[in-house]
Structures are given as structure tokens and as C-alpha cells.
Give the backbone structure.
Amino acid sequence: GFPEHARALAVRGGSRAAQGDPRGLDDVRRAIEISRGRNDSLQLARTLNNYAIDVYPYEGPAASLAVSEELLDLAERRGLARSARAATGTRLDAQLALGRWDELEVVAKEFLEVPVLSEWERFWLHISLAEILAHRGEAQRSVALTDGLVESARAFGEGQALMASLCVNALVAAGAGDLASARRHLLELEDVDGLREQWNFPLYLPGAVRTALVVSEAGLAQRLVGALRDTTPLHRHGRRAVEAALAEADGELDRAASGYSDAAAEWGNFGNVLEQAFALRGLGRCLLGLGQRAEALEALAGARALFSGFEAHPYVREIDDLLGDESVVTEAS
């Protein structure tokens, strides 16, 4: 019947999209139409949740978030508690990328109080909260949230969870000044089964590369970039950004500045505001090194404004140190 047809279309479409074929999204959209037409709420909810994940690498976090919010509305109207929790989990990556951190934190804390929350759902809430707190410089709270995450991920037996836990643990450890632990977590990434096939690898790669460079693991950073496929816009934007970071680390400031400039524009168009901020910061650093101070100040001011909006205080302070006396000008602008 039609519901079975919708399920088959959704599965086929998701598989095609994951392999880099954007026409797979058309299959999933058709499956949504069929389920909606048949008033099949359960199948519609499942397909919307998967579509929110499928569409992100192609159309960005805002498109993904819109689908998750449609799912949440459906779940609340039809009393689908499990689908409502799924929508909350699926929204996390998009909210993080869009800089909607206060909203994410409030909703996540509410859901952590839900008695029927599964360990899988709790895991992803802790991952997202820990990442936000690390970016905001709240080392003690972020360390507490990451306690046991890697062990939980191993118990799940899911590569996507292990990869995410290692990346976030490394970020948190580096932020807390424990560079040895950060390095150990990053080196374990290479042992994750099917790393390059994990759908969320390109989401975490830029941060993993930045952390690898902080702990002087440029070789690992290079190998991680080598594991990235070029299947979707998300993959390609991520590659652009991390190759710029590697060029900067090698002292190739001209090439790095060009890469960062392209990455900032691409991330901006894609809607990943957090990565846009990191690209602008990198661009500003490179331009300062090249003696192009006016252009550097413009890029750094843009990065500072974004990081300030996220309350990502460590990055704001870093930019202020780069700007020196001119930080007051950017504050007022």
C-alpha cells in the first residue's frame, strides 16, 4: 500500500542523499507527501526526523531546523512523545551551528529531566551542552558533562557516537588546559570504524582539526582531512575551512587567507554561523601576519561580533588580544 511505498521511498532517498546524490532528497520529500496524504502520522514523523538529518549537508542548519520544528509540531499535536524527543535531539546540531545556544541549553536541560529519556538521547544532549560550555570557557561544567561519554559511546557500538564523544572530549580537555587528554582523544579518532562514512563526521571535523593544531598534532589533522569525502556542500565547506587552517599552521598565510575568505563566505551562505566566525577569525589572523591591517580588522571585528553574540568569551578575548587598542573601536561599532 501507500504507507509501504512511502517507507521504501524514504529509505532509498536517505541512502542516495548519504552517498552524495541530492536527488535522494526528492525521494524523501515525495515520501513525506505520501505519508501526509494518507494521514499516516507515525510514518510521517519517522520520515521528517530522517529528512532533518538528510537535508542538513545539502541545504544547511536552518533548513534542517525547520524540518525538526515541523516534526515537533506534528508530535505535539498527535501526542507522539517519542517523536517529540527525537525532534529535540535532531535540532541540536542545527541550533549549535546557528548560534541559538541559549535556546538549546534551556530545552536540553528541560529534556534531561524527562524520566523516560533513553541513554542515547541523554548522550547527545550532554554532547551538545558540553560543546557549548567549552566554547563559552566554562571548563569545569563542560568537563563534568563529558565524564563517561566515551565509555557510553563504546557501549552503544555506534561510530557516530564514538566519533562525536572523542571530538567533544578533546575540545573540552583542551579548553581546560589538559592537552595530553585532548591529544589522546583525538588520536583515538583514527580507530573509529568507518570514520569517513559517519554522517556527522563533517560536522565535527573542523573543530577536531582546530583542536589537533592546538595540541601540535598537525600530522593527525592532515590525516583527518584526508579521510573526508567530498559528497555534499557540508563536506566541501568543511574541507575548505580545514585546509585553510592547515595552510596557516604551515605558515602559508596567502593561501590560508584565501581559503579562510572563501570558507567564511561559504559558511555564511550555508548558514553555519559558528564556522563562519571561526573562518573570519582565521582570515583576520592571516591578514595581520601579511601586514594587511585594515582588512584584518574588518574580518576580526566580524568574528568578534559573532562570538560575542554566542557569549563565546575565550574567542572574544583572543580577538581582543589580536586587536590591541583597536578592540574598543570594534566594541563600539
